[in-house]
UniProtKB/TrEMBL annotation:
<dbReference type="InterPro" id="IPR005182">
    <property type="entry name" value="YdbS-like_PH"/>
</dbReference>
<feature type="transmembrane region" description="Helical">
    <location>
        <begin position="64"/>
        <end position="81"/>
    </location>
</feature>
<protein>
    <submittedName>
        <fullName>PH domain-containing protein</fullName>
    </submittedName>
</protein>
<keyword id="KW-0472">Membrane</keyword>
<dbReference type="Pfam" id="PF03703">
    <property type="entry name" value="bPH_2"/>
</dbReference>
<feature type="transmembrane region" description="Helical">
    <location>
        <begin position="34"/>
        <end position="57"/>
    </location>
</feature>
<keyword id="KW-1133">Transmembrane helix</keyword>
<keyword id="KW-0812">Transmembrane</keyword>
<feature type="domain" description="YdbS-like PH">
    <location>
        <begin position="87"/>
        <end position="164"/>
    </location>
</feature>
């Protein structure tokens, strides 16, 4: 590219793709039951701990009504936050990337381009296995901070998405290899042309080099 061919035109923000226009697929409804089961176990642990303090701590025993109210409030808040979080979660596949949306009070949307994906795996938890659900784990070149985990997917659907992503990765790797080979070939071609040009300009020097 020559200097005359270089352009740097202004990009219209109206022409940029909008995440709001993406249709997100909600998580499987049974995943909420998985979350509730985890919350229930945590609630039982809290209740057992409070019971222990009631039996062996005079201060807690004297204010048992307040502590029980705090326990009930904490459990109720936990279940409410889990419900809100579940309703906000969603995922989507586009031609060149995968998206995952999550949040409670605010919403965060993570976008992973296919060319950044290094590995794709599936993970099943104990409770998720009861409902035939699995978690899609997408690992990128950016480390754990940029990895993507999508829970609550039906097992068959997760397998299809995994196969789709792996196929995309393979295609992109093949394209990259072809581009690299073409770049190398072009470089070799340029070197050969330069050598031929030098020989044409200095035929006497090349003849002297060839003579024994």
């Amino acid at each position: 590219m020559t200097l005359e061919e270089f352009t740097n035109s202004t990009v219209s923000f109206d022409a940029l793709p909008k995440v709001e226009s993406v249709s997100f697929q909600p998580l499987n409804k049974n995943y909420l039951n998985v979350v509730y089961l985890s919350n229930a176990i945590f609630s039982v642990v809290l209740a057992v701990g409070l019971t222990f303090f009631i039996l062996f701590n005079d201060f807690v025993r004297e204010n048992v009504i307040i502590w029980i109210a705090l326990l009930v409030g904490t459990i109720a808040l936990q279940f409410w936050l889990s419900t809100v979080s579940f309703r906000k979660k969603g995922y989507a596949l586009r031609e060149k990337d995968i998206l995952f949306r999550k949040g409670i009070l605010s919403t965060t949307t993570t976008v992973i381009p296919f060319n950044r994906i290094q590995h794709v795996a599936l993970h099943e938890g104990v409770f998720s296995r009861m409902y035939q659900l699995t978690e899609l784990q997408v690992y990128t070149a950016g480390g754990s901070s940029s990895d993507l985990h999508i829970p609550g997917l039906p097992k068959e659907e997760a397998e299809r998405i995994k196969s789709f992503l792996l196929n995309k990765i393979t295609v992109l790797e093949n394209v990259s290899s072809v581009i690299e080979e073409s770049i190398v070939s072009e470089g070799v071609k340029e070197e050969i042309q330069a050598a031929i040009h030098m020989i044409e300009e200095n035929p006497s020097d090349s003849e002297n080099e060839i003579q024994p």
